[in-house]
Each structure stands twice: as structure tokens, then as C-alpha cells.
Design goal:
By secondary structure, this protein is α+β, with helices and mostly antiparallel strands. It has 2 domains: 232 residues, Hsp33 domain, CATH 3.55.30.10; 50 residues, CBS domain Like (Alpha-Beta Complex). 36% of the residues lie in helices and 30% in strands. It is built from 10 helices and 14 strands. Strands 1, 2, 8, 9, 10 and 11 form a 6-stranded antiparallel sheet that branches.
Length: 291
Amino acid sequence: MDDGVLQAFDVQGTIQATIVSTTHLVEEARNRHKLSYTAAAALGRAMTGAALVLPVVARRGRLTMKFQGDGPLGKVVVDASSKGIVTGYVENPRVELPLNSLGNLDVGGAIGKRGYLHVTSDTGFGLPHTSTVELASGEVGEDLNRYLVNCQDAGSVLIVGVHVSRNGVEAAGGLLVQLLPDATEETICMLENNFASFGTFTFLMRRGMGLEDILRRGLQGFELHDLSPFQPLRFDCRCSTERFIQALKGMDRQELLEMAEQGEAEGRCQFCNAVYHVASERLMDIAEGAG
């Protein structure tokens, strides 16, 4: 299944739904950052959650999320844009924990149950807006749902999942269903009944179900219309040699000269782990400009 996003509304105007597949981009992140099983699950859930929440809070812009808990993973940071680009990193990518009491990867223990989720949305109009909520569990899905309820005033159900094996990321994706103003008690009861028997998102993916099939399973009893065109998603980054050079231009002249004497400057992008090198001669030119 290709990575991408689908959106839909029901005919009665009671719900809107967003569903995503993120398997390949999460696997790309796992490889680039050499993530442990637990770190891959944590970052994968966060990247999936960003792809789900972006159309809600910054449809034509950019979204940055930072999970800052008291667990050993440290910061989990994700950046997503309306161009279908998602990237992210974990502060301590090699952290591994024993399975939790349910036999699953302990994402909540790795991120931590105490701390904050910071969400910054940039619609491209005016200044970016940042909202902060306390972590609900560190499990990512519950934390994002708390953000939507508290900061976006949106009743919602949000599911994210990542299945990691010794072969890598085998399935990753998620579903967000939001209540619209015309929602009724019947709407809520139907959703509760559907999700009580829904199962896990990645299990359905591994059985070979496509996004539309999974969406209709979660929304049985709702008549859907206006399924959006499939929007591809990919792991990518805005970093470049030019951006690294711009960062160097902000440094002190003496520091630049010392790096030039050592032969070169090396920079590594946190989001994609790409490494950039600037040779001694170029550093001398930058230092002269800084003088």
C-alpha cells in the first residue's frame, strides 16, 4: 500500500474522517535514524498523528509537534507540510524498553506519562500559533486526542498504529474521526459500537485491507460521500548545503577561522540525519564576510 491520505464526510454532515497510510515513510525514518523497535514505534505514531492532524489545523500550511515527556526517549519531534512531506526525529533513538503489560512496545513508558505536547501550526497567514497540553499517557494517540479536544474544541476519535518486526516497519497508519456540529447522540453511539469491534489499525493493514476498506469498516452505518483524491505522503526534509552555510554565516568569525584550520565544518540534520560538509576555503570566505 502506498503512503497517503484520504478524507471523507458523511451525507448527514455529522462526521468528517481522515485516514492515512505511513508505512514507507516510517520505515525510511527507522533506517535513517537507526531507531530501536520502541523508538520506531514512538516516532512512527507521532509522524502518523501529524499527517492526520495537519488537515484539521493547518490545511494549506505546516505543522510541528514536539512530545516532551519524562521518559528515556527525550524529545520526539515531527514536522509535516500540506505538500505531503513528513519528517521527524527522536532525541535518544537507541532506547529500548521491555514490552508493556499488554505485550506491546512500551511507547508510553519511553516518551513518559508526565510532560507536554506542543503543537505549532503555520497556515501561512500571520504568525505561527503554538498550543500546549499535558501528556495524557505518552502513547501518542491519546495525547493527540486530548490536544484536539482541549485546543481545537473538537470531539474526536484518533487511532494510530505502527507494527515493527525484525524485518522493519511492516505497517503504519491511522484514522481520525471528528464530530461536526450536526452530530447527535446516535452518531456517537454508532461510532462507539464500530470502534469497539474495530480491532487494531495495523492488523487490518497486514490483512491486506486498503485505506477505503478500513475507513468504511470504522464508519459502518454512515453513508459517505466526497472522498477526497488520494494525496501521497513521503519522508523528506527541507535541509540543504545552502541552509547549513546560512547557519554558519551567523557564527562568530573566530569560530569560523578555527574550523577552517581544522580542515572543514560538518553539520548533521536532526530531522533526516543527512550530513553536510563545508571545505576550509569556503569557511575562510564566510569568515571574511563575517568580519
